[in-house]
Specification:
Layout: E1 26-28, E2 36-37, H1 38-58, H2 67-112, H3 128-148, H4 153-158, H5 168-214, H6 223-261
Antiparallel strand pairs: 1-2
Helix pairs in contact: 1-2, 2-6, 3-5, 3-6, 5-6
């Protein structure tokens, strides 16, 4: 099943993409807890490709790297230098580097499946994977804070210093909601909604192109050139969004860990 919806039905009219595309039929193990649909297969493909690329790029490391090894090292250095070390310092950066690297590249590769032919959907466009990644980031944030400040992490997070005691009736619920509820929720929603909207836009443009070229009468076929051009432009834009969302997810995870490690906690 291709998630780029048909451009026209039997009545010859155009039908745009709908949210139902993100709920494809089950392909394997229907009726069991291990049901696999097309989006699950896309996720498996993204993870397998990611593992294979890193295995090939690191299995025979050389002092003078080849092109592919250099590309892999550039990606790893980007996470290590720009995220882990810059925000957490070398000591804590090394501790959390495997987590941050995994989050960044997992989100990136699953986002990019949305523009890969025959896959055509991001593995992060259904809420399950973003929720899992946000849960991992949340646990890492709590772990970092409790490990660094066992006695004071929750107290200082919920009862900020310098606030008059009567105001804690108002401040504490707000701090609890913003710190322990809003952070993981915004991680999930930002990533999921960006990938959903990107897929729907690409489906709309390329579905319209198919409709104009093969179904629309006469002069209207020329409109397919415009929708095809817009589809190409938005494909490039979606690649940018895929990389940007991976960076945002990873850097917010790093910032939350940094806040948990801060001395005021």
């Amino acid at each position: 099943m291709n998630l780029l919806v048909p451009a026209a039905d039997g009545d010859g009219t155009f039908h745009g993409p709908t949210i139902d595309e993100f709920f494809p039929p089950v392909l394997f193990f229907e009726g069991t807890p291990f049901e696999i649909n097309r989006i699950m297969l896309v996720r498996f493909v993204a993870v397998i490709v990611l593992l294979v690329l890193f295995w090939i790029g690191t299995r025979k490391m050389r002092v003078v790297p080849g092109r592919f090894q250099s590309l892999v090292e550039m990606g790893l250095d980007f996470v290590r230098v720009n995220l882990a070390f810059d925000l957490l310092g070398k000591k804590d950066g090394r501790r959390f580097l495997p987590l941050l690297t995994t989050i960044f590249f997992m989100v990136l590769f699953m986002n990019l499946t949305g523009v890969v032919p025959f896959l055509n959907v991001a593995g992060t466009s259904v809420v399950g994977t973003p929720m899992l990644l946000a849960a991992v980031a949340y646990v890492a944030f709590i772990y970092a804070g409790v490990k660094k400040h066992p006695a004071g992490f929750f107290r200082n997070a919920l009862f900020p210093a310098g606030v008059p005691w009567p105001f804690y009736v108002l401040i504490t619920p707000i701090e609890f909601f913003s710190t322990f509820v809003l952070r993981p929720v915004t991680l999930v929603l930002r990533l999921t909604f960006n990938m959903i909207s990107g897929h729907l836009l690409l489906s709309l443009f390329f579905g319209a192109t198919t409709f104009f070229f093969f179904t629309a009468p006469g002069f209207f076929k020329l409109l397919g050139v415009g929708t095809l051009a817009f589809g190409f432009v938005f494909t490039l834009f979606e690649v940018l969004v895929a990389a940007l969302q991976a960076y945002i997810f990873a850097i917010l995870t790093t910032v939350y860990i940094q806040l948990a490690l801060a001395e005021e906690h």
